Amino acid sequence: MFRHTKLLQFEAKPEKPDAVYARKLQELIGGAFGEMTVTMQYLFQGWNCRIEGKYKDLIMDTATEEIGHVEMLATMVARLLEGAPATVTAEAVKDPVMAATIGGMDVQQAIVGGGGALPADSNGYPWNGKYIVASGNLLADFQANAAAEAQGRLQTARLYNMTDDPGVKAMLQFNLARDTVHQKQWLAAIEELKADGLEGDIAPSALFDEENQDHNKTIWHLSDGPDGAKGTSWTTDAGIEYLMDPEPLGGPGTAPKPDPALYGTYAPLQDAKGTAKGKAKEVKNKLT
Fold it and tell me: How far apart, in whole angstroms, are the C-alpha atoms of residue 134 and residue 105?
């Protein structure tokens, strides 16, 4: 059961309308790392959590807070759109330079949202449930949560530098702080999962004896430059070997003959020029 309190978690009052910035803020609502994503991510993680107690409570507390963050941002967007497009745009377009700037506002906010926020990103792309991670494995989920909060804080920080409005900046300062503590809490929760013996360093903590033992301790050097091997944290300290000249272990990635009814273009296998087999055939042909 959820209850709605008719007060914002933090104030969301801009000093003046700004239709273009309202569009930018849509990223923090419906972008891949926006508040809708972490809201639904945490809600489904909480609903799917098989352990009653501290972990589920932490997830659900944070999920419910994130609903409030969506409300704060939606309120801010609506207030930034006050007077747009009818008044603000009509006056602004008298100046050609400003007309081009105001042209950056999302007309969907007026046509579809009626001057309000949308469940979409800053390009108007609808929010997608595929953005969320709710696997049922708390280690994997908490790692994804820390990453989501990091990306969300990064985008909030960028948007913070895109406005001079003191009201908007005050709200974003609050959002930055909450993103900070949420990163800290998920990283700390990961360590507590380990301390409680529920998970290890790797998710899932199973099938280690079944995996290929020759390839669970190597990094393949596949990009120019030798510096990757200098990272002691992921080599010596982690017991991982850097293979500086790795060789492919499989044969050609040739697709099978297609179903004739699908009309895929097909020809019998031809020897590629430059391969050992191709060169041998070329020599043989010359001799004959």
Answer: 34
Spell out the domains of the chain, with CATH numbers in brackets. Answer: 19-195 (1.20.1260.10), 209-248 (no CATH)
83: left (phi over 0), alpha (psi -120 to 50) or beta: left
Q: Are 105 and 23 in contact (CB under 8 A)?
A: yes
Cα separation, 169 vs 187, whole angstroms: 27
SS3 for 133? coil
SS (H, E, C) 210-244: CCCCCCCCEEECCCCCCHHHHCHHHCCCCCCEEEC
Residue 142's closest CA among 206, 232, 210, 62? 62
Query: CA torsion 115→121→126→129, rounded to 10°?
Result: -130
Q: pTM of the entire structure?
A: 0.85
One pLDDT digit (tens) per residue for the chain, 288 residues = 999 999 999 999 999 999 899 999 999 999 999 999 999 999 999 999 999 999 999 999 999 999 999 999 999 999 999 877 665 555 555 666 555 555 667 888 888 888 889 999 999 999 999 999 999 999 999 999 999 999 999 999 999 999 999 999 999 999 999 999 999 999 999 999 999 999 999 999 999 999 999 999 999 999 999 899 999 999 999 999 999 999 999 999 989 999 999 999 998 766 555 556 666 666 677 776
